[in-house]
Amino acid sequence: MTNMLQSRWWSWGFRSAVLIYFVLLIVFPILGIYGQSLSGGWHAFTDNVTEALAWKAVLLTVKLALISTAINAAIGTMAAWVLIRYRFPGRRLLNSLVDLPFALPTAVVGLMILLLLGPRSPVGQGAEALGFTILFHEPAIVIAMVFVTFPFVIRAVQPLLEELDASEEEAAYTMGASPARTFFRVILPCMTPGIASGAMLAFSRALAEFGAVVLVAGNIPGKTLIASVYIFGEIESDNPAGAAAVSVLLLTLSFAILWIVHFVQTRRTGR
Amino acid sequence: MMRRLWIGLTVLVFGLLLVIPVIRIAQGAFDAGWSGFWRGLTRPEALHALLMTGIIAVVATVVNAFFGVMLSLYLVRATWLGRRLKRLMNSLVDLPFAVSPVIGGLMIVLLLGPDTALGGLLGRAGIDIVYALPGMVIATLFVTFPLVVREVMPVLQEIGSQQEEAAHMMGAYAWTTFWRVTWPSIRWSVVYGVVLTVARCLGEFGAVLVVSGNILFKTQTATTLVYQDVENFNLTAANAVALALAAGSVLLLLFMEWAKSRKEVH
């Protein structure tokens, strides 16, 4: 028995099984989607991508993802700062709550926003009285994106703040720097790499978000239809080539972001 | 003064963004009282959907836990893989994080759908992939693949290979070395990765929606049922299922916190 387990055949079998699984599950499908998008030739691809509605959907997604990333960079930096630097009752609870958006199903998130901001809810009515609607308009999409990407910046900034050497800060104070000056000259530069990499991950997740958005966006073509919902619509209406073309656009953007984050991180740890 | 302001603001943001929405779901589920919640949750279609979600979660978690641990071992330890290749594979592992779930589903439809060569072949053999359970499992496998690997790999790198080499030199078989030396140190990160995988399986929506076709009593999962209920303006029922899912996620989150503290102790 042990002889058999030890034998080369077993380890060879394990190795090939794991490699084949990896290639079939991850590499093959991604190559497949690039292949499919170009299957009708280059012209068909550019036609699909430059179709007005597709193009508008991609632009809208990028715009709203940028807004939600900016919001999250601000909120996340503040929350990370408070959670690391201050001691107050409930701090541990808040720190555990940070991961909640990762744990909650995105469809449930969509439903939550629908209930909270709908036209019959107090918030929806308040906004209506002020002359704008949240649900089925851009604000609802931004809120959904902010919720779903909430943990990224916090989780990226926290370790940097923990590592920050207190003596640097003290030195700044002793040399007569004001708290504000110390913050902008010493603390903020230390947090910046975390804010940047967290924000990029949040951005790429916001670009990809589907579940939370599809329920609250209204999905009006050209107005509140974001890229992932557009892709879903193309699949439903049996136009896989169009879906694949827009997918390739989104994927390439996300891969570029992921690669930059990877590059920045390896350079930082390598130093 | 500043301190109070920042703490107050943070608590406010957490309350508005995270706590109130969860409370609102719970409240919505009990709009029609306890019986309304119970009826929403024990409808035949809800029971079937929860069963589907359960099956997918179990299968996908078991498969990805096994392959995830094996792949981490290979990527950290294997001498038979070139360094370049290992680095390339290491960055490829993260790809599912960058792919929109809808695109993940589309990939499977494009490769294995009824109109494709492979899908047609399997279909004639009586095996349906797309619009059936196998496709939904594959979609979930794709989406959850990086979770275990990303938890286990750093720990393997940290503990180094000295102890394993010592065990090997003293004549232990590879199998024994793994269970006696490696496994005890990676145990809690595997648990952590598995919990994350289960949570993601329960919540997966986009990829499964595309692949399953969301067919009632056949390929409908808990999340796609919530989606359909909302589309049909059946909000109380949607809330009941959503509350069950949210409660599951919160429980997993609590368990995760506990596993994390165990991991740090180790």
Describe the structure.
The complex is a heterodimer of chains A (271) and B (266). Chain A has helices spanning 2-6, 8-37, 41-50, 52-85, 91-97, 100-103, 106-117, 122-130, 138-148, 150-163, 166-174, 179-208, 211-216, 227-236, 240-270. The longest helix of chain A has 34 residues, at 52-85. Chain A contains 15 helices and no strands. Chain A has a single domain, classed as MetI-like (MetI-like fold, Orthogonal Bundle). In chain A, 82% of the residues lie in helices and 0% in strands. In chain A, α10 (150-163) runs antiparallel to α12. Chain A is mostly helical and 271 residues long. Chain B has a domain at 62-106 and 133-265: MetI-like fold. Chain B has 266 residues and is mainly α. The two termini of chain B are 39 Å apart. Chain B is globular and about 65 Å long. The relative contact order of chain B is 0.15. Chains A and B meet through α1, α2, α4, α5 and α6 of A and α1, α3, α4, α5 and α6 of B.
Describe this structure in a few short sentences:
The complex is a heterodimer of chains A (271) and B (266). By secondary structure, chain A is mostly helical.
Annotation keywords:
heterodimer, A: 271 residues, mainly alpha, MetI-like fold, globular, B: 266 residues, 13 helices, 83% helix
Gap from first CA to last CA of chain A: 48 Å
CATH fold name of one domain in chain B: MetI-like fold
CATH class of chain A: Mainly Alpha
What is the share of helical residues of chain A?
over 70%
Structural class computed from helices and strand pairing of chain B: mainly alpha
CATH superfamily (homologous) name of one domain in chain B:
MetI-like
> What series of H and E elements makes up the topology of chain B?
HHHHHHHHHHHHH
CATH architecture classification of chain A: Orthogonal Bundle
Structural class designation of chain A: mainly alpha
Biggest β-sheet of chain B: count, sense, barrel?
A: none
The profile of the biggest β sheet of chain A is: none
Poorly predicted runs of 5 or more residues of chain B: none
CATH topology name of chain A? MetI-like fold
| CA gyration radius of chain B, whole angstroms | 22 Å
CATH architecture of one domain in chain B: Orthogonal Bundle
What do the pLDDT scores of chain B average to?
88
Strand proportion of chain A, as a percent range, falls in under 5%
The most extensive interface between chains reads: A-B, 79 and 82 residues
Supply Rg of chain A. 23 Å
Q: How many DSSP helices of chain B?
A: 13
